[in-house]
Design a protein that fits this description.
five-stranded mixed β-sheet; about 15% helix; signal; 3 helices; alpha+beta
């Protein structure tokens, strides 16, 4: 019995040592947020003050990412656009795609322009930069999903892979 007691004591103590391990990297996972995506298409016009709004429903601690579709890829905004000089148009034209959000809405806008968008764009430029613009709103948890690993939010494909998002289930909305 004297030889059995020390072994029993070691087994009993080791049970508590391993059960009190606080190195669980998944303890920071945000369980109240389900990553999701929504496409919104709209035109920026003088009538809508070069902005449109999409309704969302998120927790105040979640992250909203907005990407602009470029025809074959997605580009994270905010993004400053520098337009080439064109005869008859103002010089050094620039503006920024931007967004603001709260727990109920995302507003996507064209900001910080240094010229009049109504008169300072050619019709081809207006079609390229203002008309029928498609944006993808991606809602993700603020806390890391995989043991503290990080993801490059500039890389749309990395975000989709990291959060295991299914692009076939994207909800599409047309505004304006």
């Amino acid at each position: 019995m004297k030889k059995f007691f020390p072994l029993l004591l070691i087994a009993f103590v080791s049970l508590f040592i391993f059960s009190c391990d606080d190195n669980d990297n998944d303890s920071f996972v945000d369980n109240d947020t389900y990553s999701q995506m929504r496409d919104v298409t709209g035109s920026f016009t003088n009538a809508n003050n070069y902005a449109f709004t999409q309704g969302i429903n998120i927790q105040s601690t979640d992250v909203v990412l907005v990407y602009r579709y470029l025809g074959d890829s997605w580009q994270l905004i905010p993004k400053m656009m520098y337009l080439p000089d064109v005869t008859g148009m103002p010089l050094n034209r620039e503006f920024q795609y931007n967004f603001v959000f709260d727990s109920q809405n995302v507003q996507i806008s064209v900001d910080d322009e240094n010229f009049s968008l109504a008169t300072g764009l050619t019709s081809a430029e207006a079609n390229q930069y203002l008309n029928n613009q498609r944006f993808r709103i991606v809602l993700v948890p603020a806390s890391p999903a995989k043991g503290g690993a990080t993801v490059d939010y500039n890389d749309y494909n990395a975000v989709i892979k990291y959060y295991n998002l299914d692009e076939s289930k994207v909800i599409t909305t047309k505004v304006n």
